[in-house]
Amino acid sequence: MHPRIEDYALIGDEQTAALVGTDGSIDWLCLPRFDSAACFAKLLGDEDNGHWRIAPTGADRCTWRAYRRDTLVLDTYWETPGGAVRVTDLMPQRDRAPDVVRVVEGLRGEVTVHSALRLRFDYGSVVPWVRRADGHRVAVAGPDSAWLRSEPEVRSWGEDFGTHAEFTVREGEKVAFVLTWHPSHEPRPPLVDPFESLRHSVEDWRTWVSRCRYDGPYRDAVVRSLITLKALTYSPTGGIVAAPTTSLPEEPGGVRNWDYRYCWLRDSTMTLGALLSAGYVEEAESWRNWLLRAVAGDPADLQIMYGLAGERRLPEFELPWLGGFDDSTPVRIGNDAVNQLQLDVYGEVMDSLSLARRAGLSAQPDVWAVQCALMDFLKTAWRQPDEGLWEVRGGRRQFVHSKVMVWVAADRAVRTMEAHPALDGDLAGWRALRDEVHREVCEKGYDPERNTFTQAYGSRELDAALLLIPRVGFLPPDDPRVLGTIDAVRKELDLGGLVRRYSTDEEAVDGLPGSEGTFLVCSFWLADALHMTGRTREARELFERLAGLANDVGLLAEEYDPVAGRQLGNFPQAFSHIGLVNTALALFGADGAG
After folding, report:
1. β-bridge partners, 391
2. 305: nearest Cα among 228, 358, 240
3. Which of 51, 168, 227, 412 has the fewest CB atoms within 10 Å around its CB?
4. How far apart are CA 110 and CA 108, in angstroms?
5. CB-side neighbour CA atoms (13 Å) of 167
């Protein structure tokens, strides 16, 4: 039986991450960065595409598993007829090289444990040469080298192009494995002590969590989401990837499979708000600084996404040797959506920088100059059709959400100048732009017959992004048009009580066959909108259901299929966890924000 997306847990070192299944197998790991080629790609193929399983001999799935409280250290427990063991998985904060540490500990009786390591570099396509050296198994292929050792040393052997080990642990006994990657042309990095790494990792994560200002209802879910966001941060630059995976399907067996190992501007304001509200100012500043570096340059060249360090070229191609998760092909690397025009990102950037200024983040040179340049571009470019927030591949349209976010850009520019009169800028021109965009959206993007805003000018389709209209301040929450839009989206985009992004019945909208599940962050937006319009009881009920969709270790994918009862899309998804944090703070913040 093929694993489900929710069968996986996350470990990481804030530069890359691995997915560990309920069967004790690490099935996905890219080294040395989130966007590097995978050395374990079983997630998107089969065992011969690379994995590392540690489990009791003959066992199938673990008995249970959990993160250690307030950490990203994963404990997996196995009960067998002969006894019980715990496997602890982590990736310590790296010094020079990335390490995967796996500690096997006997808890009761006597258990025989088997380790099977199949390294396959370049997304499962390259079998390395493996040799012994200084008590290690050393795998080398092209630019990649990985060293495996155990402590204490256990017997290992080669079989089926993999490295195997089998040993017995009794109560209180421990065996640790360390897998270390480094460029093959460099010497082996210094060895890490696996047991000290475990102790320090637990301490470091708990120290970090202690900074969280929230102590209200669902604190565990909020903290788990914040830990996940921290784990998806590329610490050298402050960029936050949308997810650590590529090509996990939005429809099993379908073609909606995308690479999410990059940083999207669309997430910027909500990410910044979540970090600031929870008390993580340092992380918020790092994200803001990444944003400034990424968008530097000609405003006409602003992209919707960038690489971890702000790279602009993310060419999309396919890996035909991988069969895809649940037979969902193609498997894609890179993302051609990077070349799309999405006018909403200008609003996101302006809103983020405005929020950063109001929050008192440290001043950075030329921020206002960047904002003025963005506004100069929007003055003429805002009338263009674009691909919209959801990166549709069915052609450009006059998307209403895009125009609303143009209004947000103008509004934040005006408000900033009103609050800081010493700044130079075209205040009168920006006010006029704000008024013109507002007037056009209300005339062309609103259907008075159905009392709802629509996905695009002249369209009858709806879009869950319309739920953000009151949140961004385009109209007040009690405006009849806002109330009508919330009710229409809730009715027409409903699937099992959750919300789809938009209707996929018309292939012309996104240019793709098939369908998708409900989009989790959109369902959080519905909860926010219900709360803002006074329906807080309904909002809390929806939030409780959404929080309950997380897997056994508290992680959410991009989408959920309420019919099949399974998670869909790349995993874990930053946008979903950002939604959870922001909605929890909105609903319960008065009860628990410090």
Report:
1. none
2. 240
3. 168
4. 7
5. 25
Query: Which residues, other chains included, contact 11 with Cβ-Cβ below 8 Å and sequence gap of 6+?
Result: 17, 18, 20, 72, 73, 74, 89, 90, 91, 100
Sequence-distant (6+) residues with CB within 8 A of 132 are: 138
- Tokens read off for 312: 């602009």
Distance of alpha carbon 522 from alpha carbon 545, whole angstroms: 14
Other CB atoms within 10 Å distance of the CB of residue 321: 15
Taking alpha carbons only, the member of 169, 176, 175 closest to residue 108 is 169
- What are the start-end ranges of the H helices in 232-366? 268-278, 281-295, 344-358
Cβ pair 560, 518 in contact under 8 A: yes
Give yes or no for residue 316 having a pLDDT over 80.
Answer: yes
Percentage of the chain modeled with pLDDT above 70: 98
* Paired strand residues for 234: 239
CA distance 381 to 218: 43
CA–CA dist 7, 288 (Å, integer): 33
Nearest Cα to Cα of residue 585 among 209, 231, 213 = 213
* CA distance readout (Å), 214 to 171, 234, 440, 510, 584: 39, 24, 40, 39, 9
Determine contact, residues 203/579, Cβ cutoff 8 Å.
no
Average pLDDT over residues 571-586: 97
Q: Which of 41, 177, 163, 166 is nearest to 99 (CA)?
A: 177
At 85 the pLDDT is 98
Number of helices (H), then strands (E), in the chain: 14, 28
pLDDT of amino acid 507: 54
The C-alpha atoms of residue 457 and residue 480 are separated, in whole angstroms, by 19
Q: Is the pTM of this model over 0.90?
A: yes
- Residue whose pair of structure tokens reads 């080398």 in the numeric block: 140
Mean pLDDT of 411-428: 96
Q: How many CB atoms lie within 10 A of CB 449?
A: 7
Angstrom distances, CA of residue 47 to CA of 22, 23, 98, 248? 15, 13, 23, 17
Instruction: Determine the Cα–Cα distance for residues 515 and 16; give it in Å rounded to an integer.
Output: 30
The span from the CA of 412 to the CA of 430, in Å, is 10
Tally Cβ neighbours within 10 Å of residue 516: 22
Looking up tokens 């009761």, which residue turns up? Answer: 108
* pLDDT at 97 > cutoff 60: yes
Read off the DSSP letter of residue 6. G
Mind listing the pLDDT tens digit for each residue in 357-372? 999 998 888 899 999 9
Q: At what angle do helices 281-295 and 367-381 cross, to 10 degrees?
A: 50
Rounded (10°) CA dihedral 236, 238, 241, 242: 170
Instruction: Give bridge partners of residue 168 from the DSSP assignment.
Output: 112
**How many C-beta neighbours within 10 Å does residue 135 have?**
11
